[in-house]
Amino acid sequence: MLYDLRTYTLKPNTAPEYLKRWVEAYPVREAYSKLGGLFTTEIGPLNQVIHIWPYKSLTHMEEVRGAAAKDTSRRWPPKGDDVLVTMDTELINSAPFMEEWTGEPRQLGGIYELRVYTYQVGAIPEVLKIWAESVPVRAKYSPFVGVWTSAGFGGVMNKLYHMWAYKDLNERQRIRAEAGKDPSGKWPPKTSQWMLSQESKILIPHATSAMR
């Protein structure tokens, strides 16, 4: 499946107002396709709202977004010109070994961590093979939310995205330490020879998020 990972950076202290508008407008959008996840950043770049939408294909995404934009209510998308600084979108493909998001509610944790790794050109197929063997080991310790790779649209390429759920930051610290000592030796995945950079964001799920 294809996922639209959208990151909206807001002016300081305006996230509550923007999310209020979102809640009011979302019922219009939900009629066309369900939201996968809606989060705000807690650690990492601040004042960001991150929303993730699952689609069957690029064609499906274009059809849904076009129909929602033409909705006669004119309530979608929520007004944001006065609070938005930037709007970024990344199209990402789900890994074959992850459970697809359906938009149905899943209670997985109080915080989510989204990590983004950039790899050398051409390395992603081999990286995915190694991750397919490593994720079941890691998933014994905390809920596995998803693994995706950049779909290659809009100039974003050679990236791997993975998301995990935790009860809180203390649990995150404990679990990451325990997983790194797993006797299998398969976590973290042995892909550092191709890795160029790593990023991490700690996210708080919003009440409308399917992942919460």
Looking at how many chains there are and whether they match, the oligomeric state comes to single chain
Supply the helix-strand structural class: alpha+beta
Q: Tell how many strands the DSSP assignment holds.
A: 8
| Strand arrangement in the largest pleated sheet | 1-3-2-8-5-7-6-4
Question: Residue share in helices?
Answer: 25-40%
Ends: how far apart?
Answer: 21 Å
CATH topology: Alpha-Beta Plaits
Rg over alpha carbons:
17 Å
CATH architecture: 2-Layer Sandwich
- How would you state the average pLDDT, rounded? 96
**How many domains in all?**
1
- The low-pLDDT segments are none
Shape: globular
What series of H and E elements makes up the topology? EHEEHEEHEEHE
Task: Provide structural commentary.
Helices cover 26% and strands 33% of the residues. It has 212 residues and is of the alpha+beta class. The chain has a single domain, classed as Alpha-Beta Plaits. It has an eight-stranded antiparallel barrel with strand order 1-3-2-8-5-7-6-4, surrounded by four helices. It has helices spanning 15-30, 58-69, 124-138, 169-180, and strands at 2-10, 37-43, 48-55, 84-94, 111-119, 144-150, 159-166, 195-205. The model has no long low-confidence stretch (mean pLDDT 96). The chain is globular.
What key phrases describe this protein's structure?
eight-stranded antiparallel β-barrel; 33% strand; 26% helix; Alpha-Beta Plaits; 212 residues; alpha+beta
